[in-house]
Specification:
The chain is an alpha/beta fold and 314 residues long. The protein contains ten helices and 14 strands. The chain has helices at 25-35, 50-53, 62-71, 88-91, 105-114, 134-141, 180-187, 220-232, 261-277, 295-305; strands at residues 8-10, 17-21, 44-46, 76-81, 96-100, 118-119, 147-148, 161-164, 171-174, 192-193, 215-218, 237-241, 253-256, 282-286. The structure holds threonylcarbamoyladenylate and magnesium ion. Residues 12, 14-15, 17, 41-44, 77, 79, 91, 94, 96-98, 100, 102, 120-122, 159-160, 162, 173 line the site of threonylcarbamoyladenylate.
Amino acid sequence: MLRAGGLVAFPTETVYGLGADASNPEAVRKIFEVKGRPATHPVIVHVADAVQAATWAREIPEAARRLAQRFWPGPLTIILKRAAAAGDLVTGGQDTVALRAPSHPVAQQLLARFGGGIAAPSANRHGRVSATTAEHVRREFGAAVDCVLDGGEARIGIESTIVDLSGGQAVLLRPGWITGGQIEAALGTPLAARDTDAPRAPGTLAAHYAPQTPLVLAEGDLALELAVSLKRQGKRAAVLALSTRQPPLEGLVWVAAPPDADGYAHALYASLRRLDEAGCDVIIVERPPQSPEWAAINDRLARAAAGSPAPDEI
Ligand code: TXA
Ligand code: MG
């Protein structure tokens, strides 16, 4: 199907990908159509290994070799200067290309047998919650996808860490399961983080990874108070809880998240889908800790909440 220019969704260790032959512009165009993704958004080219990656990048700096050696196959995407093979659709017309060798055995076998690069964004409609099961992908796209390879639940559950090595210094573009600290340790140099310390005003973040129901983040006790006050106004709340115990409130939709960062990430998107499907007026997410191992989770939650009203406006 890939060789025929079709769309093949496949499991990776992070989330499911919506794949097409990266060297076939017509096939890649279908990804954008089906996702409803703007043509200027570049997609990751998935490769079997660092040897294959060399086809797509015109320069492989020492830092890239190190990171690939240390973290591939695995949940790390590296941005490099593109080679001619990386067309305008894959790169969004930029001079760079994103490369990742996933470790999921099904993805590995698919890439090895296909022999080429597979362009794949996360298998969800643009701006929505990523898919962590084959069932999510089928529900999201139906017959618009030619084939969904079912590899079970994605182990990690949130998208890969993205590091830009196309310029002079390494920049963290998207936090992930591999932390900034691990990248720095492998590189032996500090990472230039992009905007992670800057204050985040609601609405200034590109809304992404978002359910359809408005989502607000609230500190532990506030999450409960908010649910109670919504109830008084005749509204229904769905809560993704971390530490607080379920209150005896009728009609409250309640999902208890695993207390550790790995477990939380693994369950996050399936939980958000469940809470969204409950059709409540608002999803309240109890804010997780701010320590480094929660960075990727807090990043996704902040984006999911961007564009939703502030707690006191509900
Ligand atoms: O874990 C993952 O990375 C999953 C699995 C399927 O591999 N893929 C994924 O793809 O999350 P996507 O398209 O949903 O997110 C990729 C991000 C986008 O924000 C895109 O803008 C960015 O990577 N990106 C892709 N190519 C880029 C480039 N050349 N320069 C800068 N950013 C790029
Ligand atoms: Mg995505």
